[in-house]
Amino acid sequence: MKIVWEKNFIIFVVVFSLSIIVYIFSEAILRRNTLSAAKVDQQNQTTEYGRLVDWLPASWKLTIEYRAKYLDYQDKVEKARSTDAKVDAIFVFADYIKVKDKELSDKRMAEVALNPEYYKSRRAYKALAKLLLSDNPHKRLTIKEYHDYINNLTWEEDKYHAWSAGLTQLNILKVKTSVYLEYYQPLLDNPEILTNYARFYTDLGRRATALKNTEIADQVNKIQDQIKKAKLAINNNLLNAPLDFRRKYVEYKKDIETAKDADSRLSAIITLAGHMFNYKNSESIELFSQVYDKPEYTQCPNYYYLLSKMLVERRLPKRLNITVKQYQEYIATLQSDSTILHAWEAGLSQLVTLKQNAKTIVAYLKPLLDTPPKYKEYKILYEQLRDKAIAAEDQETADKASAILEKIESSSDIKYLERSEF
What we know:
Helix content is 68%, strand content 0%. It has helices at 2-25, 27-33, 48-54, 58-79, 83-96, 102-114, 116-119, 124-131, 143-151, 156-173, 177-189, 198-210, 214-230, 236-239, 245-258, 262-276, 281-291, 295-298, 303-310, 324-332, 337-353, 358-365, 379-391, 395-410. Helix 16 (262-276) runs parallel beside helix 19 (303-310) and helix 22 (358-365) crosses helix 23 (379-391).
């Protein structure tokens, strides 16, 4: 009886263990619990899934983690909506499985080059660089083919990333110096006078010197001198911009082109200019220059919004930087009650966004003390004036603002602005 019991116990343990393993490996469970094994809940207790995985041998846990990520990356490929997002997801998936499933990895990488829609994608360079001079049985890209792809890219940041990815591939393959020179040739024919590219030219100059190619070495030195003098660069924010940054850029551009009147065109230009700030300030400056103080736009109802975005904006040159006094003088010329209110609000929003100090905000709002408020919507402006005056240790201004706030609350003569006025 004892022997039979021991056998039954062993069978039970084996069956129980296999059941748990099947449970853990279930795709449905993995999808729901992907990468959760190492996480803890709010009570600092390991999740049920984590506890199940924790007792397994290290090799098993690594297998489970690999499978979980595999399913997660595969799921992202399936759910990607845009072509760029899909191509990006395909690369991440293929790159992740390249060691354990090279055959499928090669197939998915090649798919990007073989599918015309994928090939045109902004994110195709990631996979195409891996195909450059590769041993992929499905598709091997020549240097010329890779150059053709780069030439067809629209955005400067994508071209830079493509050049970088291609160089990384050549370094991995440890190709001959002459191959590097072939790869860099377009950068000699059409120099990129940007500091981001300086490292490419430094590498090219070093390799040209190694081959005793003085002609190329001299050409590189001249280009490097131009780069130093120009002091131009692709902003790091632009290089690291989210995938939808350029999608929005194209949409805003289209809004400008299809605008039916000056007012809607002005709004679209302001939106695009704001979108480009900290990514490519030179473009923002150009956009503001196109509309500032131009007769076509100065009479637009939303011209105040343009000036508010230029208010004490240090990223703009002095000729486009609106001072607090200039903005106040502009508000004084407005006639519409709703426009006046919106102008004050827009200016305050700009100062808060730029994190201006309390004294600057007090100086901006102080003229409101000279004119009794006509509408209750001014309450928030006076509250800000009171609070900032206290922070700036200007008790007299704070007291005056408080008195007006009490009047806004108690007076029946001060009403809400009619909806039709907005």
